[in-house]
């Protein structure tokens, strides 16, 4: 089959690659997975621990093989320049693996895995591995391998129960994972020992690569995109800070009014459902949230939060805002710092991530502000985990005469962290009804109560 025929490989199938660099892209739905590469010799082993390329060790052989995180240019990917690889590297094996921070995570929760080998000037080579339902935590996806002076790609689809650590060990890599600190014994003082002649220091081998995920640094989300934070759910001191920031946009805009209010609608873990729709999905009137409870004995399937039309006037809402500041020391473990009535920032602090299900960050613009858009106010949400990850969620639409915008949803339902979804959904024109966050993490606009703010 020619390299321009856009082949879709079955398990075990192979096809020739053209000359030049190859980019291998990974996409999947459901639980997050990571992409890695192994540089392997003809003996089926790596030469050293440097031959593992992944998020904590992003390149090998002077960037001949390089890991790229998902960004505006594409999904998570491995870039390979076969011509730059030394002769002893016979193949580059591409691996997908579940997050090493959660040993219970398997490919049972991962759907529609697809790997694409892309080269300039040719159609991509596509492989869709079969579903993995027997507890696999890693899978050999494809391999790029030498055939004389040329290179080919082969589809593998072999699962591993031991995850990336076990798979890498089979290829000869020693992987260091997080270890609990050892207890220190008290040593009683003893009589001075005889002097010991110091030996010349030996060469210390570099530590093996670690599988602990690094912080994200500072990133900004594209419209409709998402990103995952790695959080220690057992850390009782961990606080995620969410700020609504706005500068008014212009002097004229500030003169006319630019008072925005941050609302944090939330579903606690005890009420959260894992539904069929992705968290942050906008749903229509009449949506009935269904799914498995996040916690055993938690909320049953079905509507736990009726829509605004069915709500009893004055019924309590799961929301933190300027009239209900919340608390960090007791439930709901969300707290608004206060109400800013001029351009600046309002901050909600989220504690106890193990107690959270979904948190929807919304902004309200009072009627007295006039007909300007949230974009004209310079509004955005900034999420900071306090551990080196800062995620900005901007607004992209110039939508006027809308008084509500659902900006971002933070999904705490994964065992090892939280996913931040760019939502940017606006209320209907000239309506003051608050959005509704359903127990399955979906969002319904124009369905909540009406509450006017008076200065």
Give a verbal description of the structure.
By secondary structure, the protein is mainly beta. 3% of the residues lie in helices and 36% in strands. Strands 1-11-10-3-8-7-6 form a seven-stranded mixed β-sheet, with no helix packed on it. The chain has a seven-stranded mixed β-sheet with strand order 14-26-25-16-23-22-21, with no helix packed on it. A six-stranded antiparallel β-sheet has the order 2-13-12-9-4-5, covered by helices on one side. Strand 7 and strand 8 form a beta hairpin. The radius of gyration is 26 Å and the shape is elongated. Residues 179-189 and 301-315 have low confidence and may be disordered.
Q: How would a textbook summarize the main sheet? A: 7 strands, mixed
Q: Given the structure, what is the number of helices?
A: 2
Percent helix: under 10%
**What is the distance, rounded to the nearest whole angstrom, between the alpha carbons of the first and last residues?**
72 Å
Unreliable stretches covering 5 or more consecutive residues: 179-189, 301-315
Assembly status: single chain
**Which structural class do the helices and strands define?**
mainly beta
Average pLDDT rating = 83
**Largest sheet, order of strands side by side?**
1-11-10-3-8-7-6
Radius of gyration, Cα only, in angstroms? 26 Å
Strand content: 35-45%
User: What is the tally of beta strands?
Assistant: 30
Query: How would the global form be characterised?
Result: elongated
